[in-house]
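Reviewer 2 asked us to include a model.

Predict the structure of this chain.
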Amino acid sequence: MIPNLDAGLERSLGSLRGVRSVRIERESEGNLQVFVVAEDHSTPEAIVAQVRTLVRAERGEDLLPNNVHVAQVVPARSERIRLVFRSVHIYREGQRAEAQVELFEGERSRVGRAEGVAVRGGLIRLVALATLDAVGPAFGRDVAIDLAAAQRKRIGGRSFVLCHLVLVRRREEQHLSGSVLVTSDPLEATVFAVLDALNRVLPEKAVEEEIEYEVEDIVALHREGDWA
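Predicted model (structure tokens):
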């Protein structure tokens, strides 16, 4: 294994104030390319200046400003989690039936199941319960969701799946409703009806973004003499 001769310099740069991580690449000509992920409270030009000063002190190399690449992490914002439908299946054995629903939250698979008697008209309810089983863990232990009703109805000559949910948080009840037009599979429509009811109350998660600055933009903020 070829030793990383710049590992020590990466550690030193990583200890700079406002710096989260550093990666160094050395070109065939021997020139350094330094990639920095920094906090948002430090300006990009200040990070570049710190990096150049430290490299000059430790290596005696005069690093050009356009060899330092800065990406800043902006403060976390909150957004509701997004659940994407993957599949719904019904498995029958004798008089029993099991509904299985798979959703995706980003790259994470959430699978829910529900069992019951395989009665006519009961599969809609089983699929709705399986959907809640998949979604439930996203809300945590402080929230409980009950299925009050899930039915397929004809309204104005069209078929809909309607669901009524009761969300309980700190002993307070919130009634939610969802509806979806059945275009092909009523079981898929059931999953979407439950998600429609939950859409406005899904938990939020913190999201961080990295903003990458072009070196030319940073250099343009200062006169050439400011980089000496």
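DSSP finds five helices and ten strands in the chain. Residues 215-228 have pLDDT under 50 and may be disordered. We have added this to the supplementary material.
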